[in-house]
Amino acid sequence: MTTTAIVTGAGTGFGLALTRALAERGATVIAGARDAARLRAAVADLPGVHPVPGDVNDPAGRAALVAAAGGRVDLLVHNAGELGPSPLPPLAAYPADALRAVLETTLLAPLQLTQLALPALRAARGTVVTLSSDAAVEEPGLDVYAFDPGDMRTAMHQRAFPGEDISDRPEPETVVPAFLRLVDERPAAGRYRAADLVVPA
Question: Which of 71, 123, 129, 155 has a Cα-to-Cα distance from 169 of 20 to 30 A?
Answer without folding.
Answer: 129
